[in-house]
Amino acid sequence: MRKAHGRCLDMRRPNTISSSLNKDSSIKDSTHFLASQLSSKTLADKFKSKNSLDSKKEKEGHKDGNPQHIAAKTFTFKELAAATKNFRSECLIGEGGFGRVFKGRLDSTGQVVAIKQLDRNGLQGNREFLVEVLMLSLLHHPNLVNLIGYCADGDQRLLVYEFMPLGSLEDHLYDLAPEREPLDWNTRMKVAAGAARGLEYLHDKANPPVIYRDLKSSNILLDVGFFPKLSDFGLAKLGPVGDKTHVSTRVMGTYGYCAPEYAMTGQLTLKSDVYSFGVVLLELITGRKAIDNTRATGEHNLVAWARPLFKDRRKFPQMADPMLQGRYPTRGLYQALAVAAMCLQEQAAHRPLIGDVVTALTYLASQAYDPAAHSVHSSRFGSPTPGKDRERKGSGGLEEAGPKATRQGGLRSPQHRRSPDGRSKDHVKVEESALAEVRRERGGSGRKN
């Protein structure tokens, strides 16, 4: 069962989408507010996709000013109670700060769904409800969970999603039962690439861009074949447009995933999401939780533990999840860690664009690793044994990838030539050369601006 994650809160600013709601507003008033927003052509037009297929659908669906994308169905509480056998405990599949999640079957269609029931205590849940229905009614991508409908009967607020049979990414990384197999390297890279593509859609295809603001392993749901989908959009915000560089808002998110500049100033940017993605990628590589107070002193915070290790690639094998039992490609591990290190730069401007991250991870995911064809490494003690995938001098490995690879156009932060954040030159070289190698091996300069 999915457990709740704490969220870091700073109640300095009102939530913009709910600022028009008084504290005493009823759910009925909220529903009217939601309906007016969903039927607003002006608001819907803000989310016109740059994708040609989406644009074609929008042209077909705007005949009477009602965008075709707004297709969330309204359910009665009675319908959803019937779908979950009156919300019986055996149907409960997860719970968190938002409320409880049940597995159910709709009597009208027979479809198996996940039904999220909001905690009725507090206005925050109502605000998240409004935002999530709004966002998922207007944004559609294979790597975003599909919202089927919602219910706002009386004081009941529920969201109905497509059911994800494999649960969350968190369920497959931590506290595994002895009989359960851990995720292999190929699956981890596949999940990372898919999650990055979902984030890329929000940042680069949605117009205006959307800042997810709550990216974490428990919010990445897995469909058949470990196909990842981002979920829980209650904290999402419209990103800056025009000459604006950030959105000022109260600090919300999950401790351990929040970008440092956002946590300190409340200034939210697309690069705030990139930082959170870096934490998730590091979780996938290391098998460690973002925050784990059961570990030894100095290892409670995943990013703080990883920063010193990023500076020396000889220590990279120590960062691999012991559950992998050495079954990973050395070069792939180095490159994946380099991507994570770039995403986790303390200075937001030094982090890559999510589109460049997608380019790198898509390549890594395409390089299927066959344990039978490679020797096994010792990830627990950090001493990889010789194998077919081990880098050799003179073969384009990390030993030589530096200047040449950089000239060929690697994945870099905008300020790749200098390091005002205090990183060593060797650290910068390792990051740039590894990421440049990904781009070079893929056979092109990658993403177009």
UniProtKB/TrEMBL annotation:
Its EC number is 2.7.11.1. One of its GO terms (molecular function) is ATP binding. GO terms for cellular component: plasma membrane. It is found in: Cell membrane. ATP binds at K116. InterPro entries: Kinase-like_dom_sf, Prot_kinase_dom, Protein_kinase_ATP_BS, Ser/Thr_kinase_AS. This is non-specific serine/threonine protein kinase. It comes from Adiantum capillus-veneris.
